[in-house]
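Researcher: I've been going back and forth with a colleague about how Phospholipid/glycerol acyltransferase domain-containing protein might be arranged in three dimensions. Neither of us has a model we trust, so I'd like an independent prediction. The organism is Rehmannia glutinosa, in case that matters for your notes. Sequence below.
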Amino acid sequence: MESELKVITPQSTVQQSEPDDSPLLNQEPRTPEPQTQFMVSSQTIEEMEKKYAAYVRHDVYGTMGRGKLPWGEKFLLGLGLVFLLPIRVVGGMTILVIYYVICRVCTAFLAPNREDEQEDYAHMGGWRRAVIMQSGRYLSRVVLFVFGFYWIAETSRSNEVEGQLNNENASRTDQTEELERPGAIISNHVSYLDILKCLGCVYVQRELKSSDFKGVSGVVNDRIREAHQNKFAPKMMLFPEGTTTNGDYLLPFKTGAFLAKAPVLPVILRYPYHRFSPAWDSISGARHVILLLSQFVNYIEVTRLPVYHPSEQEKEDPKLYAENVRNLMAREGNLILSDIGLAEKRVYHAALNGNISMPTVLHQKDD
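Model: Here is an independent structure prediction for Phospholipid/glycerol acyltransferase domain-containing protein. You can compare it with whatever you and your colleague have in mind.
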């Protein structure tokens, strides 16, 4: 089987090793010459774009943001780089510093909750929490405005959708406020900009630091249950796909957000575009930030679906619960279901970069 990465060498007299069955990556038996380049044929690119369609860019800037631009786009990009980029970088950094100072003042002389290796200020009360939350929401919106998101289109789907997805629970008319309150907000993941819509993070600890370490899943479940039962507890916004896509697809959901058996609020994020897509898919972080901040206008759409109440069967089967919410979001958001994940994204990125040093990438743990 031919490798999807075609190796071009000055001479073809070098003895070849046994064919590699890897669909994307093929290792050379010896270190290539400095002039040797690993190139992907046009046929291979088409095959990869079909296989890894959830991570393929379709904007003017092309794959990895390195496509050939028309002169008109080059002119507009030049204007943005000269006039918009410096102002937006300074403005964004200034807002971050202001919010950092506010957080430091509000948490002064206050010891965080370090249970399970998490530095948690999320359960603060009184004026401290009010100031941090309100200022955070306001400044997050200001950051988006500075970055060119001047308008945010927000829509809420009618209760007709709720009737479609909860047939078992349709007869329950005496639900209490606690039953109606979601424990978490579930959203598709398109860009790092998504996090500006939520405050309070649970950090991933990839190594265990104590024998009684609960882990991210345990912390998330505790917070979801508390948010469902206590209206004053902060809600979490979770991205169960585990990585970002180009915004047209919905990857398989991890079950961590659904283990608490609490209702969830599905939210669909979209970033419509004319020239540059804000989706963070197959483009480097630095290039993405530079191109994003050089656009004159960026767009965002937020669609809120009704609260999803799990059935008894879904409560006992988190995979079923997660899959049903995923199918609902795909249907209502006109998103395409995909069965690939983070491991395939790494393979696609490695192939685009001509990286042959990741033969075991598919065997890495998908966290």
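Researcher: What would you highlight for our discussion?
Model: I'd start with this: The first helix runs from residue 42 to 51. After that, consider the following. The longest strand covers residues 264-270.
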